From TrEMBL:
Residues 288-546 form the Protein kinase domain. This is cGMP-dependent protein kinase. Coiled coil: none annotated. It comes from Phoxinus phoxinus. ATP binds at K318, K322. Its EC number is 2.7.11.12. Keywords: ATP-binding, cGMP, cGMP-binding, Kinase, Nucleotide-binding, Serine/threonine-protein kinase, Transferase.
Length: 598
């Protein structure tokens, strides 16, 4: 649901007795991850629950069902089984199927009423809307306040959101110095509550003179943005004061980038010609022959192909069944992936050269990376040496720098989505979840891979670029330790562990102290506190773990990679096949028009 509609349409309340409310609230409190909800959110969930009754013997949840609801038993007794074997009994006050609150899932158990029973039902979509509403209300209030600040009122919403994300809230008591003798000079203070006295002292022997009183909406530090000297100024809290603090350098960067953005638009279409001069616009599917299959997905498969006219010119051809993308959401994601990839120009991102379509399939002709992916490298070699991880992390950072510079969040960073080219350099792929962020700098969909999703994704609080920073920390950990930090066969337990964060975790000795510091800096629970959130990827590049790394050599391609792939020649793949002979299965003709913009 669109953010505006989420705000306009609160969840429907269902009447219930006070006793039932207490039972539901108590059951929610038993779930560890529910402690991350505030009181209003819990009460809203309680109000949204509605009752159902079950007769003895009714099987209302079955293995393989699409789970979209969570339940709390109020009366009766239910049996939970798998493959006909009883697992446990559900008694009144117990909650089950709670994973459905986070996302739709395939039910792994069957639930049967042993006696007549009464349950309270909570819809997953309602939970997600409750979480989104809280975040949207906070964002809306923040924007309303920032628009009331004279210094900021002329800025567009997307810039205000960048400012808002970088603000730190500080609290002071009566008599506290907020600024003393002009220090710190590198901060801009925006007062949101209370009032302060600005004092000036011309010399050490003179008493401080009251210059002015500042209240809600006033700023301190903005004259210094213009170069005025504040070294003789002190600021004293008069009563309780709350202020929002931002680095002046970051503020200048964000607000000063408006003209640059206008003068250098980033939405120009990519040329149909490749870097090697290949004229992709003049090609068709008949221009290629298949060498081998590279991989299969649920609705697609990818093949290594080469030009018939030049066997040394190889590509990866992704084939998608049209019948698999019938819903508007699926079509939107497919088109978004295409448009994002066509707009990206980086040696650290897998290129999309062009697209084709026929009555049954959609095709994406992409750069071929024949060195495998980092997941395969981990599988074959175990944990990697720190220098190797540093190299691959640097490649990923170069890719994220381009993405984030265009307002795009990847949202599915993991070893499987980092490919190695024939040189051994890493390139980012897997843009099915990528999103171009709007003016609120937030995305709301639940997506990504279990173990790599940050808390704000799990809790449907809205997420931005910082989701990629968390995933980068998870990637570093897995590459250094050969296994994910958060993993397991039960997603709910993985999510619960991720919600606790990394601050209190002890890392294995295979991970150095500087690497551990970097990982924990990337994986702060508060997205605004993650390294790289304020000043971008360059702050991560400056971390001590990268001391001495040859960034220029990486960017020029002169740095020797840790692993040189053994790339087979065309003849090693056997005889080429015609493209039309290699489809995994025959697909039906599709005239729905789902490919009209592809």
């Amino acid at each position: 649901m669109e953010p505006k509609l989420v705000l306009q349409n609160p969840p429907i309340s269902h009447s219930k007795s006070e006793e039932s409310k207490r039972l539901i609230e108590s059951a929610l409190a038993e779930n560890e991850w529910m402690k991350y909800l505030d009181r209003d959110q819990v009460l809203c969930l309680v109000d949204s629950a509605y009752p159902i009754t079950l007769k003895q013997g009714v099987c209302f949840v079955q293995e393989g069902d699409n789970g979209t609801q969570a339940y709390i038993a109020e009366e009766g007794k239910l049996e939970v089984s798998r493959a006909g074997q009883r697992l446990h009994i559900i008694e009144p006050g117990m909650m089950f199927e709670e994973l459905a609150l986070i996302h739709n899932h395939t039910c792994s158990t069957t639930v049967t009423a042993l006696v007549n029973s009464r349950l309270w039902v909570m819809e997953g979509q309602v939970f997600q809307r409750v979480m989104q509403r809280r975040s949207l209300i906070t964002i809306t209030q923040s924007l309303q306040f920032l628009r009331s600040v004279p210094l900021l009122c002329v800025l567009p919403d997307d810039v205000l959101m960048k400012v808002s994300d970088a603000l730190e809230e500080s609290h002071y008591s009566d008599g506290d110095y907020i600024i003393q003798n002009g220090s710190p000079e590198d901060k801009l203070f925006i007062f949101s509550q209370g009032q302060v006295k600005v004092l000036e002292k011309q010399s050490a022997t003179e008493e401080s003179m009251l210059v002015c009183v500042l209240t809600r909406g006033d700023c301190l530090g903005d004259p210094a943005l213009q170069g005025d000297d504040m070294r003789s100024m002190s600021v004293l809290a008069s009563g309780d004061v709350t202020c929002l603090v931002i680095d002046k350098e970051f503020f200048k960067k964000v607000t000063g980038s408006l003209d640059d953005a206008r003068n250098n638009p980033s939405n120009k279409a990519r040329s149909k010609n490749g870097e090697d001069g290949t004229a992709f616009g003049e090609m068709s599917l008949s221009s290629f022959q298949v060498l081998c299959n590279l991989g299969e997905g649920q609705y697609s498969h990818t093949q290594l192909v080469h030009l018939k006219s030049d066997p040394s010119c190889k590509f990866a051809l992704k084939t998608i069944r049209k019948q698999a993308i019938q819903s508007p959401g699926q079509r939107e994601r497919m088109l978004s992936e295409k448009h994002i990839l066509m707009d990206l120009h980086s040696p650290f991102i897998v290129r999309l050269h062009c697209t084709f379509k026929d009555p049954r399939f959609l095709y994406m002709l992409m750069e071929a990376c024949e060195g495998g992916d980092l997941w395969v490298l981990l599988r074959d070699r175990g944990s990697l040496e720190e220098d190797a991880v540093r190299f691959y992390a640097a490649c990923v950072l170069e890719a994220l720098s381009v993405l984030h510079g265009k307002g795009i969040v990847h949202r599915d960073l993991k070893p499987e989505n980092v490919l190695l080219d024939q040189r051994g350099y890493a390139k980012l792929t897997g843009f099915g979840c990528a999103k171009k962020l709007g003016s609120l700098h937030r995305a709301w969909s639940f997506c990504g891979s279990v173990g790599y999703q940050p808390p704000e994704v799990i809790l449907h609080q809205g997420h931005g670029m910082s989701a990629d920073l968390w995933a980068l920390g998870m990637l570093l950990y897995e590459l250094l330790n050969s296994s994910p930090l958060f993993s397991g066969s039960e997603p709910l337990k993985v999510y619960t562990a991720a919600l606790k964060g990394t601050d209190e975790l002890e890392f294995p000795k295979t991970i150095s102290r500087t690497a551990a510091h970097l990982i924990k800096s990337l994986c702060r629970l508060n997205p605004t506190e993650r390294l790289g959130q304020r000043n971008g990827v360059k702050d991560i590049c400056k971390h001590m773990w990268f001391d001495g790394f040859d960034w220029e050599g990486l960017q020029k391609g002169t740095l020797t990679p840790p692993v040189i792939p053994n790339v087979p020649s065309v003849s090693d793949h056997g005889g080429p096949a015609l493209l039309e002979e290699t489809h995994i299965e025959e697909a039906s003709l599709d005239d729905s028009g789902c490919d009209i913009d592809f």
